[in-house]
User: Fold this.
Amino acid sequence: MGLLRRKHDDNAPAKTGKTRRVRKLGDRISEARQLRGLVRDPDLQAVEMERRGQRTLKGLWFFLALGLVFTTAGVQRFLAGGTTMVDPLWWAAWTVEPMFAGLLIVILNFEAVILSYNVKPDHEWWVRLKKVLLTSTLAMNVIPQVVPLVRGNWAEFNPGSAAVHAIIPVIVYGIAEVIPVIQAKQRKVLLLIYEATEQAEDTEDADEQEAPDTEPAPAPVPAPEPSPAPVSGPAPAPVSEPAPVPVMPAIRRAPRLPAPILHTLKDARSRALAEGREFTAADIQRVAKLSADIAEQVAAEFATHNGHAFN
Assistant:
C-alpha cells in the first residue's frame, strides 16, 4: 500500500506539469526579475565600477613597482661607477631613480584630477618635465649597455640586455601615464551614472507637477437655431425646441509616465502577479512617488489595458 502511494506521489508532478525542472526555471525567472531592478540601481553600478577600477589599479601599481626595481638598479650602476659600499655615492645612487619616478607619479596624479573636470594642462613645462624625467632614466639605463659597443669591444656587448634596459623604462613611464588616465575615466563614469539618475528623477518630478488635477470642462451645447418669422395666413403649428444634447462626463485617464517609472511599475506588477495577488495602488506608491489619485488611475489602467496606454 505504501509503495502504491509513493508511486502515486511521484507521478503527481508529471500530471500537473510542475516538475522539478519547471520549479527550477520558475525560481530562476523570479531571481532574474529581482536582479533586473538591482542592475538599474545607480549605487550598485557605482560600487561595481569602483571595485573593478581598484582591481585594475592594484595590478598596474604592482607591475610599476617591479619595473622601478629594475630601472633603479640600472641607474645606480650608471651613477656609482666603480665605487664601493663604503662610498656615500654608492648609497646615494639608489635614491635617484625613485626620486625621478616619484616626481612623475605626483605630476600625473594631479593631472588625473584636472582631467576628470575636462581641464587639460597646457603649460609648456608640464610636458617638458615629463620628457626630461623619461629621457634621463632611459639614458642612464642604456648608456652602460652601449659603452662596450662604442669602445669597439664587441665581446662585452649584450644586445638583449641593451634592449631590455631600453624597453623597461619606457614601459614603466607608460604605466605611470596610464594610471592617472584610468582614475580620471573612472571618476567621469561615476559622475555620468549619478547625472543620469538625477535627470530621471527631475523628469519624474516634472511629470507629477504637470499631471492634471481637475476634470476637463464639458463641451458647450450648441444653441438651437431661431425659428423663421411668421407669415400671413393660418398660424403654423408650434415648433418644439430641440432637446439638449446630453453631455457624457469625461473619462479621466492616467497621465503619461516616463520610461524609467513605467519599467519599475511593470516589474512591481510582475512580482505581485507572481505572488498570486492583485496589483494595487499601494504597490504603485511603494515603488514610485505618485499621489494616491494618480496611483489609483495607474492601477486601473494596468487592470484594464495591462499598461499599454502608457506606451
